[in-house]
# Entry
Amino acid sequence: MERFTIWIDDAVLDDLRRRLARTRWPDQPDGGGWDLGTDLAYLRGLVEYWRDGFNWRGVEELLNSYAQFTTTMDGQRIHFVHVRGGARDRYLLCSRTAGPARSPNYCRSSRR
# Structure
């Protein structure tokens, strides 16, 4: 088991922002929207948010405020956050998130 700290290099974030800014957008088919896949206006807003609005360093800081570790189980590298319960009679909770966007929300709820 090894301690883990999240740090995304500035060059990686800069590259991501440049690639998002260069997105080549298709035309929205008439009557398309969600019926034919992802609504173009929604996707443009999402890309704009990831490019200009998402607080990468703030999320890193939040996630790094928790004890994080990596280990190997059955040949797979596993990343996990260890949070001790506040109750006297604690239960073990093992939870898997759906992806990195879910982790900050999960961590915030663990402090309630």
